[in-house]
Amino acid sequence: xxxxxxxxxxxxxxxxxxxxxxxxxxxxxxxxxxxxxxxxxxxxxxxxxxxxxxxxxxxxxxxxxxxxxxxxxxxxxxxxxxxxxxxxxxxxxxxxxxxxxxxxxxxxxxxxxxxxxxxxxxxxxxxxxxxxxxxxxxxxxxxxxxxxxxxxxxxxxxxxxxxxxxxxxxxxxxxxxxxxxxxxxxxxxxxxxxxxxxxxxxxxxxxxxxxxxxxxxxxxxxxxxxxxxxxxxxxxxxxxxxxxxxxxxxxxxxxxxxxxxx
Amino acid sequence: xxxxxxxxxxxxxxxxxxxxxxxxxxxxxxxxxxxxxxxxxxxxxxxxxxxxxxxxxxxxxxxxxxxxxxxxxxxxxxxxxxxxxxxxxxxxxxxxxxxxxxxxxxxxxxxxxxxxxxxxxxxxxxxxxxxxxxxxxxxxxxxxxxxxxxxxxxxxxxxxxxxxxxxxxxxxxxxxxxxxxxxxxxxxxxxxxxxxxxxxxxxxxxxxxxxxxxxxxxxxxxxxxxxxxxxxxxxxxxxxxxxxxxxxxxxxxxxxxxxxxxxxxxxxxxxxxxxxxxxxxxxxxxxxxxxxxxxxxxxxxxxxxxxxxxxxxxxxxxxxxxxxxxxxxxxxxxxxxxxxxxxxxxxxxxxxxxxxxxxxxxxxxxxxxxxxxxxxxxxxxxxxxxxxxxxxxxxxxxxxxxxxxxxxxxxxxxxxxxxxxxxxxxxx
Amino acid sequence: xxxxxxxxxxxxxxxxxxxxxxxxxxxxxxxxxxxxxxxxxxxxxxxxxxxxxxxxxxxxxxxxxxxxxxxxxxxxxxxxxxxxxxxxxxxxxxxxxxxxxxxxxxxxxxxxxxxxxxxxxxxxxxxxxxxxxxxxxxxxxxxxxxxxxxxxxxxxxxxxxxxxxxxxxxxxxxxxxxxxxxx
Lengths: 262, 428, 183
Prior knowledge:
Chain B has 428 residues and is an all-alpha fold. Chain B has 17 helices and two strands.
């Protein structure tokens, strides 16, 4: 029957339309490739060793310019750091101590500092956004805490961007102080290629290639953006499993009750 | 319908003074309901369920949310990271909004297909549209609260729509903002209203149900109930059917919550609001896209097209008027539709018009997500034109000239003929 | 219609089956509803950021004998007093039978010199005075609650006034001679 075929076609069209994301990305940029993140899929989880490597890359490379202000040192426990290790990491930085007994926040024009504690936010490289801009020739290095959620296809994009720096093709007009990167909207980005081979030395013996470091730091940023990811997926499997059984039971009850009508 | 006799002395005592148990018994247990309702009649109770979930999760969120422009974004992230199960409650609320609209659209298009808006259910339909409008307002206000880039710029663009009002436009926009741009006072106000409106929806839902229970549900044949054989008590038949539908819905809903929680969202809203940087594309939430397309479809040179009209209506205004008209016109549908037959199953011409209208609306949705230029603009304009053509011309005309199919004698006879022919269950 | 006994039997079996399915569905549904309520209830328990501040670490090396400091712990004041030899002696000399809430000084301190108390009067929750040199310390040289006149001694025990109990001792431990973690 034409009517039925039509409805099926319509339903198919709607569903396919729904799943091809309705929003198009900004600017003309090369689409990043698909990487196999350990967090992908229904059973996805974090690779704790990789997160630690990523934290190292962030700390030694990115942290010079980019903050991750939504992360507290105490959060590092979720990556597998022990309370003592966290205490050491947090204690190695200094944070403003606030007013002392005499109500002073500064001494000799320098803020009074205290060692960081587990409950402190991971320190940001700049005091404020204006200072960040001034230090970077007018460009603001964005906060990275939510980066993989704040871009379309976030994780793949970050990895593609980090590994995508190239010589600009001839004819491409590169502005002063900018760098060519086909994955960045518009093709030019103020950030220079941040990673170079052996930029960090991994303690677990992993070879620090650009590809490896980029993957590690991206995995780390997936965690900073969605620290609940593992808990969410694990709980989700249980909940959906329960609901499917419950719904099947309801269906059986429904059939039974409605069969009384015949 | 018999008056129940209560055995429990406490229930009896209360019911004699406040007949609340009798009321529940009449409206949710014995309530006679057409026996042939299909699964498209599940969405009403489902919407009630979603409303309760939204209010419950919203109240919990508000316990941890801070309506302050410099703290709002971080307070949402604190909910996501530090509050126990905060991520779950927030994702339920976020995806619940999208589910709310998916189900309400199904509910509305069910009504359009089966002619549920026709005499004597006109008011029921109009109250439904009021609920829909209040929902849209609530959703818009709620989207501002996380104070991300899309929150901020969405609020800026939508509130600016009111600047087209002649003479008072700027004053009204300033009043809406409680300032000279979308800022802290705006956020505070929006939070207050976002908390208020759901309770107004709750009240409207009761009036909606009151009107529904006055004449009872429409049904797939669209013919009136003729006798006891046509009806069955709401409980257990439709309670169990609704429960099954709810289970099915929860699998989909929570599937999104747990495995694709940001599917309906905009990445830009994970960037904190910045009044100095506009995102490259400002897109409203998906459920507003068709109206957004209509808004942008009206040509700038509207003035030339209409000649004398701009004296009253400046160009920018026309788009806004069209957008609001596209919803308000639906309220006039009971009178625009001249056909006496309700269900599209017995209206061969309207059947096709219905589906074309539905597809046209979806096309408008796609256009709303695209930049208003080139082919997209053209498609948007044609679709907008067709939207109004359907409601204002085709619907009134088709009712006059259409040759409808013969209606079944009664609801029960239609059910029996179906079940003997296709061996489908009685409710198919 | 005449029903045979066999028909009846079949009906009962069907009924039992139906009831079993119905009641097990009810049960599963109830379990699901309870489980769904848990996240909402648990969201009102202390969150991670609150718990992160649930213990307070202090360096006491700058506190001198006879001096008290006030620290904040879980939103409450904590009195830490470096007691003098006289104060310790006074606290230990009292007979338990004379006390309203009998408790020996040894049960209230880990190190004789350091007295750690939650600085909230056990009567109606006021903050007793006695932390600073010039403060009123009450009849027993400890703390005095100005609200209703409760007197606490040099071990923070109630000696006179309406308060029913001694000042609470919070959980704490010393990580070394002068470093203390409360909570």
